[in-house]
């Protein structure tokens, strides 16, 4: 069985994702597309040098028509966030880029699954589904998967426990209105209340540090890419192997959490070979429920101002 992935956007996130994917998944073909035509040519030549140690994958630069028989299209293309910018500051710039990508891919005859990581990811994932007309199950955003990884690391370091013993989620927007699902958090199988050192003051600091980590990375090295590239690999690998894993992604909300107007927002969901097979409405406290509604309202306000023409 052939497994073909299209990568649109060969910047730091895209190239890191390609490198990781080749090392973790058996692919038959990886096609790289970028507005800077020479970069995918060079990256493909560089990446094929690792295939003797991974799998016999045909890696090459390509065009949108190559998507006609692809299983997955991964979109990382977009203007990256600069120091001092929020993810929502990127809306107008990246909506125009998204429109120029999605329609020609659909026109190619693509019948696979879109995976979006460009920011603001909840907005762009929602728009990818609207532009493409694809079923919501076949459009996925990375959502709060990266935020959740950052939270797990922070809690593990705070308590000096292995990170794999932390079960906690960040939900809502991948951005300023995200929030931690502390009411359901478990560390080494115990609720947060079992750890008196995690008082409200400490948890507030943790929330702030998790939310600000991306900006701090950008201040120091100009971009974030290792974490989000790994999140993309987890999603694409689950699709290609029909693995059925649960991740907090940008998933289609349509009635869950009392949100009636359909949009994509960070919540746990099951990903398998069909795309999103189940959206999971996790338990929230009353305060967390209000934060989820606030996050949805913020996204809807942004979407209401966008004209797709």
Could you write a compact summary of the structure shown?
This protein has 309 residues and is of the alpha/beta class. The protein has 8 helices and 14 strands. It has a domain of 138 residues: Rossmann fold.
Key terms for this structure?
alpha/beta; single chain; three-stranded antiparallel sheet; 309 residues; six-stranded parallel sheet; Rossmann fold
Kindly provide the radius of gyration, computed on alpha-carbon positions and rounded to a whole number of angstroms: 19 Å
Strand content: 15-25%
How far apart lie the N and C ends?
A: 39 Å
CATH class of the domain at 4-141: Alpha Beta
Q: Would you report the number of β strands?
A: 14
Strand order of the largest sheet: 3-2-1-4-5-6
Low-confidence stretches: none
Q: Please give the count of helices.
A: 8
Structural class: alpha/beta
Describe the structure.
The protein has a domain of 138 residues: Rossmann fold. Helix content is 40%, strand content 19%. The protein has eight helices and 14 strands. Helix 1 packs across helix 7 and helix 5 packs across helix 6. It starts with a strand and ends in a 5-residue tail after the last helix.
What's the SSE blueprint?
Blueprint: E1 4-8, H1 12-24, E2 29-33, H2 38-47, E3 58-61, E4 72-75, H3 91-107, E5 113-116, H4 121-132, E6 139-141, H5 145-159, E7 166-167, E8 170-171, E9 179-180, E10 186-187, E11 190-191, H6 200-221, H7 226-241, E12 245-253, E13 263-272, E14 275-279, H8 286-304
Parallel strand pairs: 1-2, 1-4, 2-3, 4-5, 5-6
Antiparallel strand pairs: 7-10, 8-9, 10-11, 12-13, 13-14
Helix pairs in contact: 1-7, 3-4, 5-6
